Amino acid sequence: MYMESRSLLDGHLGSLLSPVRRSVVGLLGGRIVLKSWTSNVYKARDTLSGKIVALKKVRFDNLEPESVKFMAREILILRRLDHPNVVKLQGLVTSRMSCSLYLVFDYMEHDLAGLAASPGIKFTEPQVKCYMHQLLSGLEHCHNRGVLHRDIKGSNLLLDNGGILKIADFGLASFFDPNHKQPMTSRVVTLWYRPPELLLGATDYGVGVDLWSAGCILAELLAGKPILPGHTEVEQLHKIFKLCGSPNEDYWKKLKLPHATVFKPRQPYTRCIAQTFKDFPPSSLPLIDTLLAIDPAERQTATAALRSEFFTTKPYACEPSTLPQYPPSKEIDAKLRDQEARRLRAASKANGDGVKKTRARDRPIRAFPAPEANAELQGNIDKRRLITHANAKSKSEKFPPPHQDGGVGYPLGSSHHIDAEFDHPDVPFSSTAFTYSKGAMQTWSGPLVDPAAPVRRKKQNSVDARTTVYSSNSKPPPNKDQGGGGRVKDKEEGTAAALTKM
To answer: What is the pLDDT of residue 255?
Structure first.
């Protein structure tokens, strides 16, 4: 199985690996600095330069060509982009002992979500302008190069100690051409930052999806907390309509959205952004109003946003080098703090030490980590599923097959290796889910599984991951931070692959 995986990896990604050669040996304590649905990012040291780097580990032991092609798309996108406010792919490394690929990036000490959730941190107006100017500059570059990020949120905005912000995690990104549009999946962007057209099932969209997310980030930085923290798609749309107003009839007719009849409100809502954010700096309101326009065509462009009065009136954006020096803080640190606080509250309650109970509505609301992108979507829309325990950071496992998302297939040929001892002995990863439609499917990336074929079941202790197919009517396995979640150990540990109970 290893040789087959190696052949597949070399065949599809060889041409992408050939321009870069890096040797990274040994994880520094194996510390995970970012954990997502399908991959982990580690802090490591480059033995050639002694430099601390971030390693994004991706597995390809499931032999799914579509997974490799999705990963190839992310690599191609990263190599197309070159901007101070976008992460730079420094190298690609493969392991001789496992079906893993490592993407090498510069290590960034913070992310915006971690800083915003840190106790005692309140951003000033010049600091917010500094962060937003860098974010919009990075988005301007991406959009000018024909790339949609499709998952702008605080944890994907990394910061170094010099105050430089970089847009990261292009796992959901896609190429796009406004003059030659192709249908793309609507199941992208983390729920709190997802624009209404995607919630309504739009497959024809453009830069407006990233600009909506940027508007949410701007309002969140000024408010000190997320502005649209919905728990489900329905609640998210309700929150959006209450804040931004419900769409007019022309909107529904023009976009022809598939879920319009289901989510169209019976009573119209009035737009109330100015009233809701009346304490914000006056110059910020026109920009927020534009970025959070219900109609994506009215959100304009990142270039137009950079020219808004928010950036041209005093107080001006501060220089990145003048930003405060913060202790290392990432979203995962905020989650760990919250978990520890819950543990202490539970212990105090168990000990009966007289701690006063508070109702949820009496507790202060502060910034807190956003949920994993699309963790709840599949259970709300589809019932039948295929479950694979692959850990590729390609979103073919986390999101719909590529026939629902344009621009997947690319030409792909000699890989390089790292020392065997590099592989960390205990790297958890979750089983994931994707949906499929009726009828056999053919895509640019090759044939997919025929959903008309009977569903086969195998015992959970099966070691042949290539043919294991599961079906379930339950929700997809939750993020580990949300409790539960499947876990399959690395093959190099010598353990059998097992899918835990969902």
So the answer is: 76
